[in-house]
Amino acid sequence: MRPFLLLPVAVLTISAPVFAQQAAPQPDVPDIVVLGRPLPPPPGVPAYGSVTIERARLTGDASGRVENVLADVAGFQQFRRSDSRSANPSAQGVTLRALGGNASSRALVLLDGVPLADPFFGYIPFNALSADRLSSVRITRGGGAGAFGAGAVAGTIELASATRRDLSQFSGEAFYGSANAVEAAGSVSPDVGGGFVSASGKFQQGDGFFTTPPAQRSAATVRARYRDWSGSLRAVVPIDAQTELQARGLLYRDNRTLRFAGADSSSAAQDASVRLIHRGSWAVDALAYVQARNFTNRVISATSFKLTLDQRNTPATGVGGKIELRPPVGPDHVLRVGVDARIGEGVLYEDAYAATGLVTTRRTAGGRTSTAGLFVEDDWTLGRLVLTAGVRGDRWTITDGFFREANAAGAPTTDTRFADRNGVEGTGRAGALFRASDAVRLRAAGYTGFRLPTLNELYRPFVVFPITTQANAALGLERLRGVEGGVDLTPTRGVSLGLTAFYNRLNGAIANVTIAANTRQRRNVDAIVAKGVEVTAHAARGGFSLDATYAFSDSKVRASGASAALNGFAPAQSPRHAASATLAWEGHRFGASLTARHVGRQYEDDLQTDILPAATTLDAVVKLPLGAHLALIARAENALDETIVTRNAGGSTDLGTPRTLWIGLRFR
After folding, report:
1. Using an 8 Å Cβ cutoff, are 152 and 107 in contact?
2. pLDDT per residue over 520-542, tens digit each?
3. Is 572 helix (H, G, I), strand (E, B) or coil?
4. What's the Rg (C-alpha) of the chain?
5. What are the structural domains, with CATH classification, of the chain?
């Protein structure tokens, strides 16, 4: 796990209070910023149709899990319909606009500017995120490349940590739920000098539910048990009235059991970052981070119920950084100039087992990828019109790839080294935002982007019994081209409507392509073409509010040659319809909300042979005050106990979260 890589950041974090005492603002300097925030977004950001989820909603969901709140934005999806209690971690890739097809993340997910995706697999460790540590989330569907935009072929999800204004000195909560589930979280956030430090922790465990339908259970079938914890330390240190240092460290550990006894997976991490924010005439955003991750997974046969594959160790490291400058070029321009880089490397160690319980094959595979980019972007305000445009140039590499096999005695049977590859990719985006009146805003945008295949796609085969999916070291890049246009209406105070029409083409999309019975291989198909409409609505009156989104995505595969059989099919795991609506009421410390979500029918596989039926769920939350700082909270997930099919392989199915009830206390 290479903990020594965290030492430089840890020293800065521990030293934060000292800097705060030495460099705190003088008493006569006005508090002109909220401590802990990033630089403000440029005025052209709304041209790309972004949606913001505020802290109150993040901390008010029935599941208590960030990934489920993100589903408030229709079009957001993970590869499967399971959350991080009952999904294999490696299946938790994130995409938008039905650009699915495999489990890797096609959306760029950032926390305080740091990419969250696992350096080896590309999945998002949602179990490590806690809503009480966040201030807001901004989701941009599409948008292509921008500042720190490599990998954003389906969009960008920007999570921002809680600021000083969001955090109380002490907070905590504890819940008990169905199937002996327990959740406990707490934080201590004292002021230190002119800044603050926030230390938080979260623990969750539960006996889980049967993901296997009753008719398919066997003596080896078990509940989807889970147990995870995370701890975070964040320090924000003002250097002067316009400059602050933000340091963050994160540890987490997650363990899950899926479907069969012994089918255990784990993920763990040590992450850290340091960020310098300067809000002067020459604004600066400088960031450095390091990630040390690991993953294990044991595959149990669905026929013999014995161990067939032990992916016992997958250490991976991600290192990167960014420097962005905003030079003063006049009151009508916000110019962004900068560089960013990311390096990911990892190695897989796994053993294959025979029915006798003896090792038959030992495998090792891995490699290294990197991107380094320069970007320039300008937002130009001309009265009611805002024009925005930016270009990037990225040099990418795929190096040190290898695959080795040995027999049980350790004698090599395969030793393959793959040729190094590199190239330069140019991308850009441009948009316009026109405020026709106080009630009408028009926008249009076009963009390009690219994504490197992950080390997982290149070098790691995997099994979800009975399907084996082969890796492919020859995979090429995914390249996006897209356009969109929309209108935002504010007909009266407290009411807003948004409508966006889009066309996205993902050339070279990586899909899990069926090549034989029970065998698939990762391959670049010609393209995935997604076009559709997105609708957002908000209304608030008194203590009531309604937020709703709907996405229609007509997504098709374009394929030829060896993959021609897929031409015209919908990508795997890509629904045409998705919708979400939350009705909430907030009184004098009282509160209640109902959230309905709908995901349309989709296909499990590339050949459209196995269907995942549509599912509609209803969640509810009620908050009752017990005092000035204490509240009793009742939560109901999937209150109507809708059957959610998350996997269907020839009739062998897995199910998602059933009705789950919670009761707990929250102290703020």
Report:
1. yes
2. 899 999 999 999 999 999 999 99
3. coil
4. 24
5. 3-667 (2.40.170.20)
